[in-house]
Amino acid sequence: MSVNIPGIVVMVLFYLLVLCTGIWASRKTKQMPKNGQANQMDITLLANRSIHLMVGVFTMTGTFIGGGFIVGLSEIIYTPDLGLAWAVMPITISLSFLIGGLFFAKTMRDKKYVTMMDPFREKYGTVISGVLSVALIMADVVWVPGTLTGLGASMSVILDLSYTHCIWISAAVAIIYTLLGGLISVAYTDIVQLTLMFFGLWICVPFLLRNPYSADITTTALNFTYQAPWVSSVDSDRMWRWIDQTLLLILGNLACQDYHQRILSASSSATARMVGFIAAPIVIIFAIPAVLIGAVAVSTDWNKTGYGSPSPFERGETSLIMPIALQHLTPNYISIIGISATTAAVMSSMDSLLLSAVSLFVTNIYKSILRMKASDHEIKWVIRITVLLTGLTGTSLFLCTTYSYSYHCFVN
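User: That's the sequence. What structure does it adopt?
Assistant: Structure tokens below.
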């Protein structure tokens, strides 16, 4: 299979659009006045607490809807022993937003915290909060490879490009605009990315539903056709596991710095609460296309497609089901739109993870423990260097994991 030239052209245009948006937004950061006690951390990490409702909703939603969210939902729906009942991520994210808005947003914003660890620093001191911050930073860095997985899988299948080239280019773009503009660049690029993601996925859905190789998904919802029904249930043997995973996701989202960064950057306490309340149902809407893609994959006779037999499940390629479905069940130009949507999802989450880790390090370790008298100029450069190092580390972890997995498969 030859390299998909039209797809590459579209991806280059997408990267240029996002990068130009990030650079444009970074100019707004330089023009922000340092009102009152605002310092470099407030301006770069919290956009000088000036994020209004619409931008806040976009960046809150884009932060949690990443490549793993979209590709992972389709995989769960397609996997025979899981299905719709186990696709709880959209619901858990929405509940996290509602709980956070009810109990955390107003208090955190009123006290003008910079990170979610500030209350711990007040209660337990700088050393304890610094140690806890290290754990959160590690979690953010490790989550970068999980976010990049959806991008690598989609690009390698549809564009027939090297995993390594796809990942490094995407990571480089995200690192550059995050480094230049901080949260304000991340927020405005989230608007572009989320818009492209929404329309890109919904454009793909009609073509998938009407393809000639798949049965009606309403028929396969509860009945065996080519595979187990995609509308599943939770049996009693696995009920506690389902409850455990659901609660873990709900509470885990509230323990993420990138969530609190959005509410702390809001222009007011009321805005901080409303951002989560409005974003909660939007997450559900964004999940629908991914669910439908998984349902179509379940309903497909893969032997009649260009993919052939055995099915993706039998080949152990369930994690690639979304790009596989786009490649074999839609026209080429539609699959390119789908990969663009996936790329937008990945970048909207990756930049948030970078900024989250940087915020925790600079605020709770560097400024609070290592260099308490650091100047604004020094903090600005520490933020930039940390963004770069965090991005390179997270991306390298993804590639190391990929190479290890490939080597294991080759040996066995």
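The domain at 5-18+36-406 is CATH 1.20.1730.10 (Sodium/glucose cotransporter).
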